[in-house]
């Protein structure tokens, strides 16, 4: 899925003033197009869905856009933290509901290079060399952590003394993403890009109240 989505955006040219939409570029993710069923995050949990994994493409593209000083038009974080990128630096997409969009606010066209190599994804943005005079530093500031709670459900079908983890749960977070702009080594701008909230998910354990196992 990642390779298919990566190939779909590779070579795209965004002219000055144009808005790039990932959903419009990829189209609906279907089995007929070659997309596979893989894990997706839905309603605070991991489920199976067609096209699972392409959020790694949208997140990588998002970070390339952030570090190019471009304007983000539409972006949403996942409901849960993801393992492949830092908090606040992810961008989820879902056909028909959630998109990732950015605008070319430069005076020059932007060319997208996207490819996979050795199970890693690479996305580069190219434009006029004069733009190298500015440098953009992006940092994520996790300023609050909400510990996950634990729910214990008694189950007579589980032997006494046994516990079964139904959901591992996850902590919640508040995180700000800040972009600083430097020109000729001097800080000229600092802006808060997003202020994201990742909702905590309870850890759920089934506690046995049934017949005790022998041995």
How are helices and strands ordered from N to C?
HEEHEEHEEEEEEEEEE
Mean pLDDT: 90
The structure class reads mainly beta
C-alpha Rg (nearest Å): 21 Å
User: Low-confidence stretches at least 5 residues in length (pLDDT < 50)?
Assistant: none
Distance between the termini: 47 Å
Most strands sheet: 3 strands, antiparallel
Helical content (DSSP H or I, runs of 4+)? 10-25%
Q: How many individual β-strands?
A: 14
The percentage of residues in β strands lies in: over 45%
Shape, per Cα inertia axes: globular
Describe what you observe in this structure.
19% of the residues are buried. Helix content is 12%, strand content 47%. The protein starts with a helix and ends in a 5-residue tail after the last strand. The chain has helices at residues 2-9, 22-26, 55-66; strands at 13-14, 19-21, 37-42, 45-50, 71-74, 101-103, 110-117, 120-126, 134-146, 150-159, 163-167, 172-183, 186-198, 203-210. The strands form five sheets. A three-stranded antiparallel sheet has the order 1-7-8, with helices on one face. A three-stranded antiparallel sheet has the order 2-6-5. Strands 9-12-13 form a three-stranded antiparallel sheet, with no helix packed on it. The model has no long low-confidence stretch (mean pLDDT 90). It is mostly beta strands and 215 residues long. A hairpin with a 2-residue loop joins strand 7 and strand 8 (120-126). The chain is globular, with a radius of gyration of 21 Å.
